[in-house]
């Protein structure tokens, strides 16, 4: 039976190594339909963050955002350092769901006056609820939104899986 478990884990590892990986986004903003399928998204990689620090990243669909949330951004902190800002932005005509990453405090001027202190959260490694920024009609229909920062890339996840597998094999050999 123990060999079967090790063989199943090995087959799973082989499948993970040979299947195509999704883009390794470090940050993303997603809108989900009521069935929890991705309806719209914008995501960036670590290379995007490094090449364009403080740039706005926008879901380019105007019907998604709630205009009344303009100015009510959420700040995401890594300890005491500002990491990301997400919410609703406007080009003067339309409203969009957007975020900025790899920020310097000076970058906040792009977001307009005042970011309320009550919308500050710590980066936790889990998606943050961003549904408040959706159009009220979409919210009523069951749509939701999330923002995520510092998504581990596929290589890190695979390495953690392999490390766990090695630990299981080692523990089995000891007993």
Summarize the structure.
This protein is α+β, with helices and mostly antiparallel strands and 175 residues long.
What is the secondary structure topology, with strand pairs?
Elements: H1 2-18, E1 25-32, E2 38-45, H2 46-51, E3 56-59, E4 74-78, E5 81-90, E6 95-101, E7 120-122, E8 128-129, H3 136-140, E9 144-149, H4 154-174
What does this structure look like?
With 175 residues, the chain is of the alpha+beta class. It has one domain. The protein contains 4 helices and 9 strands, in the order H-E-E-H-E-E-E-E-E-E-H-E-H. The strands form 2 sheets. Strands 3-6-5-4-7 form a 5-stranded mixed sheet, with no helix packed on it. Strands 2-1-9-8 form a 4-stranded antiparallel sheet. Helix 1 runs antiparallel to helix 4 (154-174).
Q: H/E series, N to C?
A: HEEHEEEEEEHEH
**Count the strands?**
9
Number of distinct helices: 4
Oligomer: single chain
Output the strand order for the largest sheet.
3-6-5-4-7
Helix amount, in percent?
Answer: 25-40%
Which structural class do the helices and strands define? alpha+beta
Strand content: 25-35%
What gap, in angstroms, lies between the N and C termini?
14 Å
Shape: globular
């Amino acid at each position: 039976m123990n060999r079967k478990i090790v063989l199943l884990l090995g087959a799973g590892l082989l499948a993970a190594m040979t299947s195509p990986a999704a883009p390794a986004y470090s940050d993303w903003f997603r809108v989900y339909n009521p069935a929890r399928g991705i309806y719209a998204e914008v995501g960036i990689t670590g290379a995007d963050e490094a090449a364009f620090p403080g740039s706005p990243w926008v879901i380019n669909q105007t019907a998604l955002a709630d205009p009344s949330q303009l100015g009510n951004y959420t700040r995401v902190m890594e300890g005491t350092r500002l990491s990301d800002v997400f919410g609703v932005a406007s080009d003067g005509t339309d409203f969009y769901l957007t975020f900025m990453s790899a920020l310097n405090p000076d970058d906040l001027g792009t977001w307009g006056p005042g970011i309320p202190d009550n919308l500050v959260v710590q980066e936790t490694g889990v998606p943050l609820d961003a549904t408040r920024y959706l159009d009220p009609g979409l919210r009523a229909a069951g749509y939701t939104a999330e923002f995520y920062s510092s998504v581990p890339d596929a290589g890190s996840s695979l390495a953690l899986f392999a490390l766990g597998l090695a630990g299981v094999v080692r523990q089995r050999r000891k007993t």
